[in-house]
Specification:
There is one protein chain. The chain is of the alpha/beta class and about 270 residues long. The protein is built from ten helices and ten strands. It is about 35% helix and about 20% strand. The mean pLDDT is about 90.
Length: about 270
């Protein structure tokens, strides 16, 4: 295994392009993951590994007990699955890492095809995000969706779930949560084929979330950070719902609102 010492290496330059934009990641069909725990979770979730970049001469990561355990687990997975390792210098690892702040390892994975076949239409609870642009919010929502027991997330014209901020904020949920990417019209048609009760989060709704007993087979739709849903998803079959705002502000950050609503929906099944 040849060690890559220079950040000017052609392979390094090609991989760094994955940091440039979601367009680059989609065009190249790959995404990058930083950190021992995150790479470990991506491997365990079954994502196809293209390469794992690490510095074989670096001392073991002992920044925390969790990091040390994650490093041991990942190295065991690499050996068990015979994964492709690229031995690189610390300078190269910094070049490959997000923000040039190395977390010990960078994994390159094949970007999965995220079509509607990725999501089971029979899952009990489904989340639909409409034009959510900020990857950090997408990641935080994916983490909450997993914690609340949702079975899938449909992204309609949203930001990239495999961006650095989304991966980090999802705490790895992006790797195993069923996700689909599509446009609103296709998603609406797909949902229309299901006997699923849909709810839309709207600050102007007269119906408070505490007044609704959510059925098992339901879906929640949330709009983007700036404009909400507007006139989109305005079918009479979709029930608008709001959170009670008892202070001076009239809305929550979309990831916070999604968390409260999703836990309320699944709470109804546990009574």
């Amino acid at each position: 295994m040849d060690r890559i010492e220079s950040p000017q290496n052609p392979l390094v330059k090609k991989v760094v392009r994955l940091r440039a934009s979601s367009r680059s990641r989609r065009a190249l069909g790959s995404f990058l993951v930083d950190g021992w725990r995150e790479v470990q979770r991506a491997v365990e979730a079954g994502h196809q590994v293209e390469a794992i970049f690490l510095d074989s001469q670096a001392p073991r990561d002992r920044t925390s007990k969790h990091q040390a355990e994650a490093q041991e687990k990942l190295m065991a997975l690499i050996e068990t699955h015979d994964l492709k390792i690229r031995d690189v210098s610390q300078r190269v690892l910094e070049k490959l890492s997000y923000g040039n702040s190395t977390r010990g390892v960078v994994g390159q994975f094949k970007r999965p095809i995220l079509d509607l076949d990725s999501v089971d239409p029979q899952t009990a609870h489904l989340l639909v995000l409409d034009r959510i642009e900020k990857p950090g919010n997408i990641g935080a929502i994916l983490r909450s969706a997993d914690a609340a027991g949702f079975g899938g997330v449909v992204l309609c014209e949203c930001g990239d779930p495999f961006s650095e901020n989304s991966i980090r904020n999802s705490s790895g949920a992006v790797f195993f949560m069923p996700i689909a990417e599509t446009d609103r019209e296709t998603a609406e048609s797909w949902l229309g084929e299901q006997s699923r009760q849909l709810y839309s989060a709207r600050v102007e709704s007269s119906k408070c979330v505490s007044e609704i007993e959510f059925p098992m087979f339901s879906g929640l739709i949330l709009g983007n950070e700036a404009d909400g849903l507007g006139t989109r998803w305005s079918s009479n079959d979709i029930q608008p719902v709001r959170l009670p705002m008892r202070g001076r502000v009239d809305s929550l950050n979309v990831s916070a609102a999604a968390t409260v609503l999703m836990f309320r929906m699944t709470e109804c099944q546990n009574r």
